[in-house]
Structures are given as structure tokens and as C-alpha cells.
Write a structure and sequence with these properties.
The protein is mainly alpha-helical. It is built from 9 helices and 3 strands, in the order H-H-E-E-E-H-H-H-H-H-H-H. The chain has a 3-stranded mixed beta sheet with strand order 1-3-2. The longest helix has 22 residues. The chain is globular.
Amino acid sequence: IAANVLGAAPLVRDDGLQRYVNQVGLWLAMQTDRASLPWRFGVIDSPSVNAFALPGGTVLITRGLYDSLRDEGELAGVLAHEIAHVVERHQVKAIQKAMGRDFATEIAGEAVGRSDNEIVRRFGSRAFTAGTEVLARGLDKKDEFQADQRGMVIAARAGYNPFGLAGVLQTLD
């Protein structure tokens, strides 16, 4: 799914910017109970104002959103919100729901005696399609509200103003 997003809009070619966003993001992620995920953060080269959390710990924000931020606290607020989606597995649950319960049973039945590569070959495209649809459609309001709340806690634990995201939303409004 991340490759699909990056195919549409590559990372901004600024190593200093990417390093900075990764440092802030990794510090925030270390404040969660899923600190051991292989977290990756990046700014994609798009003028739109958006941010994405992808299953497994990849968080991307657009150049348009980054340029609208006033300070590191607002960056932390946005990243913490997206980190909260990953921690709460919002995208994974939405993908599972989109694919249906029968799919999980089918995978479990097929998995016996097969390698991971065989399973990915057989079922990966269905998961990819469902994940791309979830990314395009967005999450439901309940998940967004939970990520707002959890993101505030993550930001505060990391030493940032917990209202950084609120500042971003006011600016964008």
C-alpha cells in the first residue's frame, strides 16, 4: 500500500527534512505500546493537505500539510494522530472488514503446510485492493476521534503540547 502511495507521489527530495520528520515521528512512536514496530515517516511531494497511516508503522504526510505547520508541536500533533491509527490497528480492522470474515477463514485453511510466499501470492492482491480502498475512502469518524484522543496522549508523553493537532485543524479550517 505504501508503494502504491509513493508511486503516485514520491518522497520530497530533501534528506534533512526526511530525517527531521523521522526523528520527531520515532520519538513519538517510542511513547506507545507498539514501539517495536519498524516505524517509518516521510513527507511526500504533493501540494494537497493530508496525512496517511499505513498498517505496519508507515506514516506519510504531504508537502502541502507540512508547509502549513507553524511549529514542531503541530508536526508532532499530526504524526501522533497517525501513529494512534497504527497503534489501534484502525486500518487493519477496516481492511479485514472490507475483505469479510470468510477471507480470514480461507487464509487459515490455506495456510496449513504453505510458505509465507505462497500465501502472499495467493491472497496478497485481495488485501492490497482492500487496503487501497480503505486508504482512499478514509476511516470512520469513531476511529478518527479515537486517534485524536490517543494522539494527544502520545504527544504529551513525548513532551509536546497535546493541543498541537487542534492548532493544525484550526489553521486548516
